[in-house]
Structures are given as C-alpha cells and as structure tokens.
Amino acid sequence: MLRPRVVFGISPLLDGLCIMGIIIMIPTFSVLLWRDPGTVREARRRPLAAAAAGVDAGDGCRGDEEDATSPYMTIRDVARGAVPQEGFCGFCEIVMPDRTKHCRLCESCMHTMDHHCLFLTKCVARSNHRLFLSFVFVLAVAMAMFLANVVVYVNATYGELGTAAAIARATLRDALVLAAATLNAATLVWCIALLKYQVALVCVDRTTVQNLMFASPARARGAPCRRFSTREKLVNLIAFCLGRDIGAADGGAPKLLV
Ligand SMILES: [Zn+2]
Ligand SMILES: [Zn+2]
C-alpha cells in the first residue's frame, strides 16, 4: 500500500533552511501581490531650466499660457517636436516619463516596466522588480533545500539513492514525495533560468522589454547597442540591489520603452 512519509525531520539544517525559505516567501509574495508595480500617475516633467524660464510661449492658441507654466509636458510638446511621438501614451493621454511603457493588460503606464507577469497578473516594474527577483531567488533556494532534503530522506530510508532497488522501493512507498520532488526540480530549473536571464539584463542595464526591442532591428530604431565592461556590469548589479533606478548610470540605452 502506498504510504506517503514525512520528509522533514531527517536533516535539521535542511529543515531549518526550508522553513526559513517558506517564512520569507509568504510575506514577500503578499507584498508582491499588494504593492503597486510603478504606475505612472503624472506626465513627464519639463527640464528644470525650461520650466524656470517659462519657455514654450506656444503659437498663441488657447491654453498656451497655462501650458507654459505647467511643470508637466503635454501633447503640445509632442506637436512641437520637443518630445518624440513615441513618448506620448494615447491611452493615458500623457507624455510618458523616461523609461516608461504602457501595459495594455494593466491599462496603465508603468515606470521602468520589465514585463507583465501572468502569474502575478500584474506588471514587474520599477517598484517591484527587485522584490520580484528576491522572491524568485528565495523560491529557488527553498526548492533546492527541499530537493536536498528528499535526497537525504531517501538515502536514509531506502539505502543509497541511485540503485534500482532503492528507487523502486522509494517510488512504491513515497510516490507523492517523489512526485513533489520532480515538480520542484522542474520549477527550480525554470527559476534558475529566469534568474540568470534577469541578472544578465540588470548587468547590462536593460529591461526585458528593452531586450525584446533590441532583438528586433525594426523596432530598435537605431538605438545604440552598448558594450559593458565587467566592472560596469558589477556596478549596475550593485546599484540595482541597493534599490537605485535601473539605468541611473546609463550611458547609451534608449530611455523610451515603446
Ligand atoms: Zn499609458
Ligand atoms: Zn501589466
């Protein structure tokens, strides 16, 4: 008869790490679900010098005076060529700040949008990108600890793992544990691949959206494809980990994510 067993209790160290991972994951996931990813609530601000000088006298049309004193850019700036046409969001009707993209699923402009996550059903953008990667990292560690626990457990219960007899006995008696371990292993591979991809992008100061844009020459519109030294990559990674805006030390990446 198949009888699922308890995996915990075999290795106190692995148990502790596993439980710690779960304890960290639950609040992290809750905050991820609750926190605003970086919805843009106001249009791009005018450059300080231009705002102080009250430039943009306009063409004498109604609204020009108000426009000239406003700290925010409007569609008039787009019409005058002060902002490229791609910088205007027709859905939100604002001049998008730098590194912004409109998400049609969230129906909002997102600051430094990385991608729209279908698991979270929300965007991963400026305010939750770091938290998202932290969550995936903790998830990967917890799953690795669970897998290690399963290996220790099977070894302790059925003898050396790897022998056909041990695997057959474990499969018969602990089918659920092995099924969970298999699912964990598959998810762990996905998490590691995702982390590797994301860290590589952070190092070169790019978001997923930008990377997809670069992959399509037709959409890249001649944006410079800059090479980063190892030191620069490290600086970008540290800046990201410290919570600074991705692209703060930008040297050539396009600012508009459209
Ligand atoms: Zn928008
Ligand atoms: Zn979205």
From TrEMBL:
Places the protein is found: Membrane
Start and end residues of each Palmitoyltransferase DHHC domain: 85-211
Transmembrane segments: 6-34, 131-155, 175-195
Taxonomy, superkingdom: Eukaryota
One Pfam short name: DHHC
Residues spanning the signal sequence: none
Keywords linked to the UniProt accession: Acyltransferase, Membrane, Transferase, Transmembrane, Transmembrane helix
Reaction(s) catalysed by this chain's protein: L-cysteinyl-[protein] + hexadecanoyl-CoA = S-hexadecanoyl-L-cysteinyl-[protein] + CoA
Statement: the UniProt record of this protein carries the keyword Zinc-finger: no
Entries under PANTHER family matching the protein: ZINC FINGER DHHC DOMAIN CONTAINING PROTEIN (PTHR22883)
Family: Belongs to the DHHC palmitoyltransferase family.
Protein name per UniProt: Palmitoyltransferase
Source organism: Priapulus caudatus
